[in-house]
Amino acid sequence: MQEYRDAPKDFVEPTAAELKARNRRNVGIAVALAAFMVFVFVTMISSAQ
Q1: Residue 22 · residue 14 · CB < 8 Å
Q2: Pair 45, 38: CB distance under 8 Å
Q3: What's the Rg (C-alpha) of the chain?
Q4: Which of 5, 8, 16, 33 is most buried, with most CB under 10 Å away?
Q5: Which of 39, 19, 15 is nearest to 27 (CA)?
């Protein structure tokens, strides 16, 4: 039985616009994650007092 992971043989090279969009999306996710971490940290510190 052939598995799905063996099927893809050819891959499409991303364009410059796609790479730029991916980079911006990754930066956005990183900023959102950092903001969430700061929010949780501030919430934990303020509730401890």
Answers
A1: yes
A2: no
A3: 20
A4: 33
A5: 19
